[in-house]
Amino acid sequence: MCYTLPMASRVVRARLDDASQSALTAIMNEGRNESEAVRTALIEAGQRRRTRSELVDEVARLAADPADAAARRAVMADMESVSPDWPD
Question: Of 20, 71, 79, 85, which sits most exposed with the smallest number of CB within 10 A?
Fold first, then answer.
């Protein structure tokens, strides 16, 4: 037996500028109604922000890692030793 829980809903009002309206129209052109398009846009934007935040955290962690910093310096030294001189 399958039960469907009621979805909590919240009504949000927004004034759309031209760019927002264009983006909403593009999502609606995929066959979504206005509410579905707004929910899709919010979910996708949230995922992108979380991904960016995770990347920022990863870069900070690697920058603070002494072993990773030593490995970067070693790679850069190797690259410098094989790179040609710039012409004058």
Answer: 85
